[in-house]
Amino acid sequence: MINRYSRTQLSEIWSEKTRYEKWFLVEVEYLRALEEEGIAEKGSADIIAESVALNPSRINEIEETTRHDVIAFLTHIEEQVPSASRFLHFGLTSSDVLDTGLALQVREASTAIDKDLADLLEVLRTLALANKDVPMIGRTHGIHAEPVTAGLFFAHYYDEFRRHRERFNGAAEEMRAGKLSGAVGTYAYGSPEREAKVLKRLGLEPAAVTTQIIHRERHANYLNVIALIGATVEKLSLNIRHHQRTEVSEMFEPFGRGQKGSSAMPHKRNPVLSENLCGLARLLRSYAMTGLENVALWHERDISHSSAERIVFPDATILLDFMLARLDSMLKGLAIKPEKMRENLERYGGVIFSEGVLSLLIRKGLKRQEAYRIVQRNALKAIETGGDFAKLLMEDDDAGKFVSPEEINETIDAGHSLRNIDAIFKRIFG
Amino acid sequence: MINRYSRTQLSEIWSEKTRYEKWFLVEVEYLRALEEEGIAEKGSADIIAESVALNPSRINEIEETTRHDVIAFLTHIEEQVPSASRFLHFGLTSSDVLDTGLALQVREASTAIDKDLADLLEVLRTLALANKDVPMIGRTHGIHAEPVTAGLFFAHYYDEFRRHRERFNGAAEEMRAGKLSGAVGTYAYGSPEREAKVLKRLGLEPAAVTTQIIHRERHANYLNVIALIGATVEKLSLNIRHHQRTEVSEMFEPFGRGQKGSSAMPHKRNPVLSENLCGLARLLRSYAMTGLENVALWHERDISHSSAERIVFPDATILLDFMLARLDSMLKGLAIKPEKMRENLERYGGVIFSEGVLSLLIRKGLKRQEAYRIVQRNALKAIETGGDFAKLLMEDDDAGKFVSPEEINETIDAGHSLRNIDAIFKRIFG
Amino acid sequence: MINRYSRTQLSEIWSEKTRYEKWFLVEVEYLRALEEEGIAEKGSADIIAESVALNPSRINEIEETTRHDVIAFLTHIEEQVPSASRFLHFGLTSSDVLDTGLALQVREASTAIDKDLADLLEVLRTLALANKDVPMIGRTHGIHAEPVTAGLFFAHYYDEFRRHRERFNGAAEEMRAGKLSGAVGTYAYGSPEREAKVLKRLGLEPAAVTTQIIHRERHANYLNVIALIGATVEKLSLNIRHHQRTEVSEMFEPFGRGQKGSSAMPHKRNPVLSENLCGLARLLRSYAMTGLENVALWHERDISHSSAERIVFPDATILLDFMLARLDSMLKGLAIKPEKMRENLERYGGVIFSEGVLSLLIRKGLKRQEAYRIVQRNALKAIETGGDFAKLLMEDDDAGKFVSPEEINETIDAGHSLRNIDAIFKRIFG
Amino acid sequence: MINRYSRTQLSEIWSEKTRYEKWFLVEVEYLRALEEEGIAEKGSADIIAESVALNPSRINEIEETTRHDVIAFLTHIEEQVPSASRFLHFGLTSSDVLDTGLALQVREASTAIDKDLADLLEVLRTLALANKDVPMIGRTHGIHAEPVTAGLFFAHYYDEFRRHRERFNGAAEEMRAGKLSGAVGTYAYGSPEREAKVLKRLGLEPAAVTTQIIHRERHANYLNVIALIGATVEKLSLNIRHHQRTEVSEMFEPFGRGQKGSSAMPHKRNPVLSENLCGLARLLRSYAMTGLENVALWHERDISHSSAERIVFPDATILLDFMLARLDSMLKGLAIKPEKMRENLERYGGVIFSEGVLSLLIRKGLKRQEAYRIVQRNALKAIETGGDFAKLLMEDDDAGKFVSPEEINETIDAGHSLRNIDAIFKRIFG
Hints:
two-stranded antiparallel sheet
């Protein structure tokens, strides 16, 4: 992932250096188990752990010849401690190291992302509670519908991201699986017991059954969940953009001192963070597609998934971490404009309470579609002519004979529409 | 979905008829709650439930004018029972009916798919146990690696589909959520209590917070899991194709009496079922993409997801049901050829035990990469010349001085390689 | 594709009936060529063409046994005219018929879609010219930028769809290829000459080289172009939705007498057609993905593409035809509101001409970033406070000493901004 | 893109350095035009061109404050040459520079990729011609079908990549478009004439009509074509893998001295290059999806496409270049095994000529399905029992009375099946 969209911690998790360190950890712990079984000489693991200095460029140099990264890595260690490394990798296949190492990297990335999600939930909770009773027009199809509150807007996302966090941790838990089952998963030169012991020390679970590799459906699931979280980031960002558009002007992204919106137009203040997040969400979706195509491998494995994973695992996790952090800081600096919300809410007079009038007329004895026609014709007229909905209704012969002005005015009341907000908040925040 | 790839039960779940029936159920139960609250007249719900005959073509006819499907549906009922339906839909918005109805349809589809998965697991278990000890060459990169067993092949899929079943039921459970929260999710003309009561009677849970609709990230998750299951169907099918290819000939799809493989070539017996399943898996992937794009809607909802869902929900579930059933019956009729497996296993003499010789040489004191070079040069020579690997090794000066012919022959033993199969089966099947 | 999103002509092209008719056409013309070469008896082709009645349900019945559609089709003919059909399909493989038949269906679908595109271009041209000089605020990032015209909005799409039409016809032309090269594309029992003759009569070109099938990269390309056109339909629809949103209210989709926007809220008038088109565009994208995955087949072909194509070719073309027609009729009924456009354009006074003031200050000798800071601070203040931009500038010490009120007022002029509209239209419409 | 899958030339095209250089070029040439129009002082462009040293890290530093990359870039220049840069960017918007700069980068990338395609075509032509007459079994569904030749295999790809090259150059030509039309594409502070002059000097065409940006459907098209080429790279690679699999052993990827196939199994020689290419093709597909989602932007543009493009344009082009080069060198070192091909071809005796026998029986007067049944039962028996197809046929009462042993033997002849290979090659290579 390009630097622009990467944060340090995640970049380091996916660096060549960390990758080799994880492999090293796996090999050393495995060798220690071999010692305990009396296969390798006592002390080999400690010698290697203490004496070997990993040098990525030397490893790459060796790979030029071997055309195999794990063998290059092993050769690099053997160059430094020839005798202690005799039983290094004994009974293992490269994928034991690769998949177990990957699980260790993913675990770290997952911990960071879970932290991001926790932070985001906190911001959303704060915004939801602080704006619980700020009325805002609800919009369906982009058209004014009925009142909601600004806090409710954020409460939705709190609820949705809470579900995402559960899904994510479920998928991350599935990825906390290693394998040390050898070339085709049969422990031909190893044993399930040795695997269990080593993985436990590494903080991983053994995958119940493997081929040369851990089945890639776990990886695809993990990438799917990342794409899914991305889709909600996109939804929230998309709606911030809507709230910031000139004609709406209800919420504004932070705009720093010295910030400039446009090279041509000094008056511009654009929701660039949200737009950025919408674009990045597309990438997360695309990585999920690759993950799904990586599942169907040949026989005990082919290596077609490997090249794609070298790119999509770093890219997807780095990007999600970046996106969550950006969203978090954007929300923290978000300017919310209650007065503008009220202005928009009241823009078309009472028509947004047309459902109240409809209900009133039904209660008064009209049939639904009959009542509907009366309300609709007056509402559309009010919108088109800018007229007063209540007045038009009273002047309408069909409506006027059923309801009084007082009754109509009682329906035109945001307070009534919002009386259940507290109950909804209780459901979400307890 | 076209008939060719549909089974009756699923097609009916997604028929126009069922769709309207689910809406009807929601409206009637809701009306009953209104009765209980004293809003609607007592008995209205029963009158409607008993007197109304749903006629899809009449509804479509009305929709020509209203350009709104739920209103057409309501009008259709009102035409039949004008007075009983006065409070029908009172306080509801269309999406209350649509999303709750959809949840009911999805629940039925999910039950059917769960049954498919249970059946498939049973077939896989049977195949795994029956072939537990049938040796077969394991292949990585499409190249002979080390022995596995035919039963192990199926055990993998048992394990993977078991995980899928859990994921699927988790996603289905999330979809068992309805909403009756009105136009923008605020219960402006309804109440959380009424919603809770009605949904409980329908066997659904209320979504904690909604806009006009239930958040589409649940739907995307459900479609993702379907795509993920499809990817494993694809993997299994892909590998059946591999096992059936002429040069391998280890497994064969059922081939019925009177079946013809090719219009031109009467000798053909093709793995057409597996190929078919591979193709259909691509479609499941594509529907997942659409699901992910459906998440980010405007404000309290826009209706862009609706057209896509009308297609992908039926198509994805009908297709998955069809695929699982086809896979099931294909596996039941699968012909497994142990003798051909043995022939392939032994094709290259002992070279597939090169790891055993490598381990032996290391135990004898050689350094890993040194031992590797010796084994590699003899193994590649054996493959290229068709020579005897053990013999070549003994004639190799570097190897010959470390190991005896007896020691080499001991390493060339599939039994040793497969000694942990039982332990793996125990992990999976208990 | 479901009826809701299908038009008759396209549905018929993809009906089982048409499919068999195309196969029939291919077989009969091929048989005629065999007659001319003296292989089949003279008159066979005519006998078949005249006597055979295709009955899809009988064909399906036979397929139950043969498990092969083309053989079932051939058997169905042989049942009716046993002797005349002796040389039917002689030297052909099923895919000769399938791929050539598909090419004939695609050609018809392409002709219909090209007609849709031509119609759409005509509507766009009309809208562009009729609204060429209607000023409207241009928006970047959803924020008011500088003036454009309503006609220019449509001119963009004219230009873009014109490119699409070229791309589409290019892709359609590639699909106008048949093959009659036999089981593995070698004309083992046929000849290139016979193929050339028959295809010419069918109005197709021979694919230069084939395996059992025509390479699927042509098909993927065709589906890609369809997805690409869908993306522009989506863009146009998305922007109609933007223009219709309550706060903007510049354009309105047609809204029929008796149409109802919402079952709950009689005041709603929603851009449902545009929303619908946005959703359907997602499906076109997903079909393209399937097309791309269908390219990489095994050896001389595997049949995994076939199941997917049975769905995506009809679905993609039917949907695109439906979408273009819906877009066309929506645009024809589009209500455009010049007065509302002007109101929005003038909403923030002169700030939208901030670039003009910036340019003025640079011309007066200020450095760009210096001038920028002056203009930016006054523009943002005008927006936040609702103040008069020109007035604020004059009161600004830094600006005031460089420019006069007259000079500022001259820059605040939509006419100047739009002076090149005619030149742009000339480029597009000549 | 990670270094592992990048080549120098393409990486440099997409470096920050090159990006800024292209912007610089655009700004300087534009300034020169302003000089020629008498707006900017004579000589400014030359002063800037000669004096300014671009320092990416300083630009990034400024961007920390401005939160706008182009403004940071401009400020960086103004810091160095304050007076000469007064009219720099005068009348331009950032996207004028960004999109025109991008077009220049894409043009270079396209030239490199076109060269890759030309090289690949040359290798394919050589392989096709050299192996034109090497018989190989053709396989459909992975099952032996009828003979082809090894050269024909490569000829297919030659033909397909030739089409790709045309498509690619078409899409690249569309991308050779710049824009200097200002903030909303109206030339409000510029002119079409100035744009035409500057773009001509840069070797680009003006886009006929633009908003703030060039329409992204061109970009999506370019990425689609890249994905499409990737799909054919995948097909070729997939089939090399098939030909190399142990049981087939007809073609082998190059395997260098010192190369190691597996860390566990010294006997392995795996088709890792082809597998790698199959994985990378998945990524190209996913980038195309992102490209399609980037088309539908808001109004005169939103910037959501930008973040995604920063990643997918470099990644897609760098990857395609890498893939084509890897494919090229892999094909150059490909080992082709005619003797193994012949062995496989003859594995099942004459059954692969079952179509010949079918044709013979039809000529002898049998009806097609009758003849089919006779041939099928003998062919399947020959395959299952390993029996001699010709002998079985002669012993079959139904067949034996129609044909003589000589006639059967004449049909069992690869030479006859391959008699049209030259004609096919003539079509392709002239």
